[in-house]
Amino acid sequence: MANYFASPIVAVTCTISILCLALAESANSPFIVAHKRVSRTKVNSDLERLSVSVDIYNAGSKPAYDVALYDDNWAEEVFDTVIGNTSKTWEKLDAGSLVSHSFELESKVKTVYYGTPALITYRVPTKSKLQEVYSTPILPLRILSESTAENKFQIAKMLLAKYGSLISVVLIVTIFANIITSPTKASAGKKKH
């Protein structure tokens, strides 16, 4: 009877110890987190400039080596690189350190662009294969379109022109009904017992 229970207990104990060793090994390695952001600046009605910035942070306990950033998925028929490069390399990224890379693009094409995350590769001394990490994705970019504040103002102006007289009549009737139904000060002072 003891042998029947001993074999599952040994298997569970071995599994738990293997998992603990794997977790301990992963705690002694670099952990790369990357954040990509884009800001738009409209130069004129036919030209918009994008400023792209990628922050790379090593949240692990060991340094990462041969860190490389690749963000070259910008469509060439839509964008021209103006300042900087879309790729960058660093020899070493220490634990707890942060590096940033920025570049600027210009576009003369009116479109909605769905960008892709940037690719970051790095080497861990204990592993032979390069490790890959992707940055956070960006929201769709409306290139050379009117800003949302201008669109909201245009919509509000159109609604006011279309329904303004109806809204004012409803407000006047509501205020009049409120005045009629609310008690006056003189009658509020008199209480019936």
Automatic annotation (TrEMBL):
PANTHER family: TRANSLOCON-ASSOCIATED PROTEIN SUBUNIT BETA, TRANSLOCON-ASSOCIATED PROTEIN, BETA SUBUNIT PRECURSOR TRAP-BETA SIGNAL SEQUENCE RECEPTOR BETA SUBUNIT. It comes from the Eukaryota. One of its GO terms (cellular component) is endoplasmic reticulum. This is Translocon-associated protein subunit beta. The chain crosses the membrane at residues 160-181. Keywords: Membrane, Signal, Transmembrane, Transmembrane helix. Residues 1-24 form the signal peptide. It holds the Pfam family TRAP_beta.
